Amino acid sequence: MQRWASLPGDVKFLISVGVLFLALFVANCTLNRYVLHVITLIGIYSIATTSLNLTNGYTGLFSLGHAGFMAVGAYVTTLLTFPVRLRIAYNLPLLPPFLGGPNYHWPFLPALIAGGLVAAVAALLVGAPVLRLRGHYLSVASLGFMVIITTLAKGLKDLTRGAAGIQAIPRYTNIWWVYAWLVVTIYVIWRLLNSSYGRAMLAIRESEIAAQSQGIHPMRYKLLSFVIGAFFAGIAGGLYAHFARSIRPYEFSFSMTFLIVIMLIIGGAGTLLGPVVGTAIVVALKYVLKPVEEGLGVYGLVEIVYALMLIGVMLWRPEGIVGGVNPLRFLFPKKGGRRNAGVPHGEAHGP
Questions:
Q1: How far apart are CA 68 and CA 52, in angstroms?
Q2: Which of 61-65, 113-117, 136-140 shows the highest mean pLDDT?
Q3: Angstrom distance (rounded) from CA 53 to CA 320
Q4: Helices (H), the chain
Q5: Among 149, 108, 141, which residue's Cα sits nearest to residue 249?
């Protein structure tokens, strides 16, 4: 244990990633396709929830527009990688050349990154005016962005096929793509939090007025967290599109927005592991309870359980399941100094 504790944080992270992918290899060789489907879906939603955690958990904002950024990433990535024969069959005359054109399609990785970048640009354009709001005003405004995106997806039939959505999307997403991007997401956020930018975000979360008095420009750091969170939300949307193989505007509406928020609250906002734990619990419960719901004929049972869990967490453990505990102490040890208020020991500090 002492030898492990003396290792640099980056080395511990690499070892942990190696253990994760070894476990995924074993799971891929031994588990059936249904369980692997659930594990992959947990990874996709974990990316979305972890990226929302940067904005909501660490910067102290409360955005409800994350599903809109996922939609942007999903549609951009899909249109970039869409096979030529299907573009012709679907008749998408509004497809511009920079989205692939009629004669070729992009490889998956560049298309996925492009989807994230377009989502980040959308966040930059929307965040500049919206982030001047606070509290429930910000929540409603960001929710309005999600409504605008889904409405555009329904209305631009010559680009998105409207409410019918796009089907027959190539299935490029697999368990390796998903968890590789989850590792990248967690690593980027971890390194960001252990920089001057991350400390400024934490200061803004605790008290924006106090942070401003210390020379921190709140708008700059709030916009940075918003844009980075949107980039990874776009990545999650692209992975989701190429996993489900079909996307429709209603999939990125209120239900997905609140599902991601529930995952974050249950797992623990402001913790690195909380979003993943919350996502695993919520997604696993859905697939466990669906057969029970259908067998009993009590449709809506899953949503009732989610609501009861949310109420229970808010009443008895408002910091979330992971909040207040320190499961990552071995990976993110604290050097010393005053502990950040509201941040579990070791999770806001670098090695």
A1: 12
A2: 113-117
A3: 12
A4: 2-6, 9-30, 33-53, 66-81, 84-90, 108-130, 135-155, 157-160, 175-193, 196-206, 208-213, 218-244, 254-267, 274-296, 301-316
A5: 149
Q: Any bridge partners for residue 24, and if so which?
A: none
pLDDT in tens, 183-229: 999 999 999 998 888 899 999 888 888 888 888 888 899 999 999 99
Contacting residues for 303 by C-beta, under 8 A, at least 6 apart: none
End-to-end CA distance of the chain: 16
Q: Which amino acid is at 286?
A: K
How many Cβ atoms sit within 10 Å of the Cβ of residue 32? 7
Sequence-ordered list of residues with C-beta below 8 angstroms from that of 87, at least 6 positions apart, any chain: 95, 100, 102
Judged on CB neighbours under 10 Å (0-12, 13-18, 19+), 286 is: middle
Which residue reads 């209603």 in tokens? Answer: 250
